[in-house]
Amino acid sequence: MVPNRAEDELEEALLEVSAMIESTVAMHRDRYSTDRMLSNVEGDYDAVLDTAHEIIVGATTSIDIVHARRVAGEGRQGRSERQLLYSADPAVCVRLLSSPEMLDDEFVREQLGRERPVAVRVARVPPLQAIIADGTTALVVTGTAVARRASVIRVPEVIHTLHILFDNVWRTAVPANERIVFGDRARAAFARQILGALRAGVTDEVAARDLTVSVRTYRRYVAEIMALLGANSRFQAGVRAAELGLLPPSGPDGRAPTRGGE
What we know:
14% strand, Arc Repressor Mutant, subunit A, Endonuclease, Chain A, 8 strands, 2 domains, disordered C terminus, alpha+beta
């Protein structure tokens, strides 16, 4: 399948912002730290969460969050991170942009019963954690657990760029409650293999042989998956699957799929 040019350009732009934040911290630390426009969050991951809590509680109009960085092994995580969002003022508009890998399905379900739910959308974004409050303050976390950098930023130029990019990604992101559920784990894994074959462009005969099913059965599964995805063509099914985060970037099993039995 031909890569989506817009997605590639968007990812490049997001990576550029991440690099801009890094360079701002490195080059202008002294200049901005004197008036508290830029400061590093020192300490363990608990300190990062405490800072996030302060920013969320202090927000009065809006909170935009990017959740696309794994935090395993960095201290408190999971439920405690989700609870941070519930500490926001009920009048504040909260938007959460998650990568497919980091999406918390339980949290999405919890929003269905809330009077003022957190709006959750899914998109492929570089590994980054960020909170933008009221369009004036941001907490940005980059890097690994070993080489993590967390910064509180109030530099208008950086905040403005972050806000514009968030809005651009948000407009094309998929609402989390539209993600397709294929059933149990085994059935979902089989569906992803079929989607991977469609994305790779292999013939029905080759795909059916690889999946050890008849060509007729394979084509029946393809038709069912297309119906679930609301797709009118196989190409559209692949595009829709990518939008919903149903396929990893490199293929159904983390490897580049083969084409035509190669």
